[in-house]
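> call design_seq(struct)
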């Protein structure tokens, strides 16, 4: 009996080690990060990670084998999503642990992702209070599909690719906040810089939808602005 229990314990640890395999590749970590924003097709994920469809499919196969990602065929495309919200929490915990324990990560974040003049130091809780006021204007820079899947309440969707053509719709007399796919998102940096170069007092939030959800706050789903 004791040996049988020991073997079952070993089996559990062996199965859990699949999670480690899934997170052992930078590309797979990025795929999990992207999927924390909402479902995406294999083609979209390949383009967003700058790899071939075959390479992206191979990484997604590992993620599906670990149980962290689910793939569903719809028409000619395979759509992928995280198995549940706990997978997103696992990614956030890993990212936060990296900033806590790895000096190299902290240095990169400080030097490239924390420009004082364009970054907001608002926490999720503080931002919730600020965004409930009439003096604030929140811009979601992600794609229309990500916005439709879920966004921070009161946010308006101005995808980065169309932002320059939409600037006239943004009120210049309000405190403007932007967010995209989290603290390491290049889109958030580019979008905020574009707005500031056009004279708008924009500041980038250091969090996005996954962090908002992880704080237990409500998420909205609605049609984006065209």
């Amino acid at each position: 009996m004791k040996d049988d229990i020991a073997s079952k314990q070993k089996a559990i640890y062996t199965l859990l080690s699949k999670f480690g395999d899934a997170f052992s590749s930078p590309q797979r970590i990025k795929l999990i990060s992207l999927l924390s924003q909402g479902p995406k097709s294999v083609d979209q994920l390949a383009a967003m990670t700058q790899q071939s469809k075959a390479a992206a499919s191979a990484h997604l196969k590992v993620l599906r084998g670990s149980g962290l990602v689910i793939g569903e065929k719809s028409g000619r495309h395979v759509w992928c999503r995280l198995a549940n919200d706990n997978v997103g929490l696992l990614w956030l915990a890993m990212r936060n642990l990296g900033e806590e324990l790895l000096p190299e990560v902290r240095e990169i974040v400080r030097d490239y992702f924390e420009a004082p003049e364009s970054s907001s130091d608002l926490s999720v809780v503080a931002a919730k209070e600020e965004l409930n006021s009439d003096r604030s204007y929140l811009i979601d820079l992600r794609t229309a599909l990500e916005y439709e899947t879920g966004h921070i309440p009161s946010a308006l969707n101005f995808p980065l690719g169309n932002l320059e053509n939409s600037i006239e719709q943004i009120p210049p007399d309000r405190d403007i906040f932007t967010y995209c796919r989290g603290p390491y998102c290049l889109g958030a940096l580019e979008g905020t810089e574009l707005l500031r170069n056009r004279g708008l007092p924009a500041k980038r939030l250091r969090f996005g939808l996954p962090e908002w959800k992880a704080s237990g706050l409500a998420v909205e789903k609605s049609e984006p602005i065209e």
